[in-house]
Amino acid sequence: MTDSVPAARSNPAGSPPLSEEQSIVGDENFETTGPERAAEELAAASETRTESDSLGSLPIPADSYWGIHTARALVNFPITRRAISNYPDLVRALARVKQAAARANRRLGALEGHKADAIEWACQRILDGEHHDQFVVGAIQGGAGTSTNMNCNEVIANIALEHLGRPRGDYATLHPIDDVNRSQSTNDTYPTAIKLAMIFGLQRLLAEHRLLAESFAAKGREFEHVLKVGRTQLQDAVPMTLGQEFGGFAHTLVEDHERLGEVIPWLAEMNLGATAIGTGITADPRYAAAVRDELVELTGLPFQTAADLIEATSDAGVFMTLSGVLKRAAVKLSKICNDLRLISSGPQAGLGEINLPPRQAGSSIMPGKVNPVIPEVVNQVAFSVIGADATVTAAAEGGQLQLNAFEPVIAHSILQSLAWMTNACRTLRVNCVDGITANTDRLTRQVETNVGVVTALTPYIGYAASAALAHTALTTQSSIADLVVDAGLMEREEVQRVLSPERLSGIAPITGVVDLAAIQHAQQAAKDRAAGAPRTESDLT
């Protein structure tokens, strides 16, 4: 059995299937799954069951699968309207880790077979998309993720109890902590689930990122003979082809694709089995290896146990690494969008080199105005990713002694960045890049009258003559080629040869600037390097 990455979040049990348009990565279903809604249901429930913990007893809505620990979290953390159900990859990852733990505990004789079977059955229901609406605690919480872990334990326990023919809350039959959480602590279960969720999200991002690179590459081939004026510091420089420009966009994405893929093996190093602080207290000494083997079998991913569980339990370095690579990818993608907005500016008084597909009316006051809304939204995604990286950095630094208590905000920040970047890559490809066209006549005229062209003629007519022609071209807006021929300095055929796209751009025609094979080659290079890294065994892409 292996874990495949779903295209979008799963719908709660009992809800109608989501359409493709509704199934958007990272969708926020505030109205049905927000912590405030769950808290309101808790207060207004007419039929309840009573659950108890070390602090006392509370009435719990009879039809809820969550219990008293979740109820206390709903009261304590009314911070954000984003419940953990809004992170379907995290919900699936939690269920997968609990499933692996149940298998390992049964194998070691620490959990009775009928309980392990019921827990596994419950986990599979969650993995199949059921009961996600029961994961109601807020994503941002104190306690290093304990409320998330307990919400998961309670939901699994009550689903399992129903499977056993027992009522919800009958914890004497199957207990959320003693059975579902056996051999575990939040401090090893939660970060392992976060890493698995990030792998899911990263795999999805890599797929969309690759498609975007291929789209830019296709435009590079389409525009390979279209000359344009290159610019440095926003001033005219020397000619290039529009194909080279778009090929450059493709190549910069390939570089980031490689870097993103390199992070996955680091995420596969886990501290599951470390329990509270890395000593493995309350767990069978064989448990860490057993649960690792089960997780590998269930996910198809080569997870490995960290060499130093004390260090792995307190360290958040891998999250900083992933966040930093995401920031790099976002910054470079944003720069591409800056360029697209600039070279498409106009339509009459701007550069006007390319046309972006018109997506919507651009102004409530200026009729006919169309704005570059797709690059603009991608810019804003990049700004958010940059901010999220600052949050992750601060949270990683804030850890103390044997645990980092701020993994909830780390998980929120990175999972949101992964989802938003995935969506950004898709909308940029589908709603913008695939439909870009070139204003070839305008570009040709700009090259013909641009003084930068004379640089290519200098070896033939000399610097002084080139400078004089540049001055004349600037003042008369005449074609450089025509001026050279009219002055009798070169024959037209020779001028055309020197000023051909191939000669001016400095390279042969670019047929296949970037394609899938090139991207796969880059990925393999990343795998080869990752295989030699001291903390990894193999790449998972």
TrEMBL record:
Transmembrane segments: none annotated. One of its GO terms (molecular function) is aspartate ammonia-lyase activity. CDD domains: Aspartase. GO terms for cellular component: cytosol. InterPro entries: Aspartate_Ammonia-Lyase (IPR051546), Fumarase/histidase_N (IPR024083), Fumarase_C_C (IPR018951), Fumarate_lyase_CS (IPR020557), Fumarate_lyase_fam (IPR000362), Fumarate_lyase_N (IPR022761), L-Aspartase-like (IPR008948). The keyword Lyase applies. Keywords: Lyase. Residues 60-387 form the Fumarate lyase N-terminal domain. Residues 1-56 are annotated as: Disordered. GO terms for biological process: aspartate metabolic process; tricarboxylic acid cycle. Residues 454-504 form the Fumarase C C-terminal domain. SUPFAM superfamilies: L-aspartase-like. Coiled coil: none annotated. It holds the Pfam family Lyase_1. PANTHER family: ASPARTATE AMMONIA-LYASE. This is Aspartate ammonia-lyase. The lineage of its organism: Bacteria, Bacillati, Actinomycetota, Actinomycetes, Micrococcales.
